[in-house]
Amino acid sequence: MQISDSLTPEDYQVIREMLDTLPNSDISLQEIWQLMDKVWDDIGCNNNDLAQEKITAFYKHPIWLLNGFFIEQHELSLQHRHAISDWIVQNLNNGNGSVLDFGGGFGTLARIVANKSNLLKIDIYEPYPNNFAVSQCRDYPLISFVADLSNKYDCLVSTDVLEHVSDPLELFGQMIKSVNLNGYLIIANCFYPVIKCHLPSTFHFRYSFDQFAEVMGLKIIGFCEGSHATIYQKISTQPQNWRKIRRMEKWSQSLFAWREFDNQYLLPWRNRFKRLLGDPVGTINQISQKFS
User: Fold this and answer.
1) Which residues pair with 98 in a beta bridge?
2) With the CA atoms of 143, 33, 18 and 48 taken in that order, what torsion angle do they form, in degrees rounded to the nearest 10?
3) Cys-Cys link to 162, which of 65, 168, 199, 241 (CB 3.0-4.6 A)?
4) Is the separation of the CB atoms in 50 and 44 below 8 Å?
């Protein structure tokens, strides 16, 4: 993996030491996750008992610089970002408008969008900005790092952010508020335990997130083809009904264990039954072949 020599000596040394623990130079996504988990444990973070000073230290650690370098050299990660950027350029006011990359970190997506359009104004909101990431965007006059959400945007992008926070709905509400009416939100979530910094308290949203999006004034447009993101459109400016939203959240939490059981054990049998009804001869032949 190629690492920039423009890093601070301290960051460069930490990253080299992490890479030296791996068996070869062709680092995989799973190995990035393993390194993240090791940093999480070394700092003493606990995803069931969050200590803010430790969380801050984790997200300021050079592991996230390494993750940025990895994304820019990982085919699938780049494919997802190119798919999102293509949708933005093709659908946002004929390539003219404003975009917020929420949690944009390394600035990869913002730079990809800027390379495809010289009209779009792109802000990056990153709670833990790194000086190197900021420097990578200095040659792009339409890219800015912002410290708050005081502006309104025609499109907001958030990839793999909400599973990292203790109250995804509160943050999602802030995202929605920062988008203009009829504007778009492109959201990619990973409410799964692939790494330790994905908080277990958020996992129930993997079954219910779209329901919350609709209640919070969004229309589901569909998947962003070629990526893992979903596109939503803001169709209401009515204040959020937080009493209803929090009531829905409790239901989502209480139903999570049942939905997991249903997804793992019952859904496969329902799908087999549907196939049997739709194509009884073909299904029976498939079953026969398995046991022949």
Assistant:
1) 121
2) 100
3) 168
4) no
**Amino acid at residue number 60:** K
Backbone angles phi, psi at 180, to 5 degrees: -65, 155
Domains and CATH numbers, the chain: 9-71 (no CATH), 81-243 (3.40.50.150), 251-291 (no CATH)
Mean pLDDT score of the chain? 92
The DSSP element (H or E) to which 123 belongs, if any, is strand 121-125
Q: The tokens 């190197």 sit on which residue?
A: 132
Burial class (CB in 10 A: 0-12, 13-18, 19+), 134: middle
Structure tokens at 223: 């998947």
In sequence order, the 6+-apart residues with CB closer than 8 A to the CB of 254 are none
Bridge-based pairing state of the strands 98-102 and 153-159: parallel
Tokens 């996992």 belong to 203
pLDDT tens-place string over residues 246-284: 999 999 999 999 999 988 887 776 676 677 677 665 655
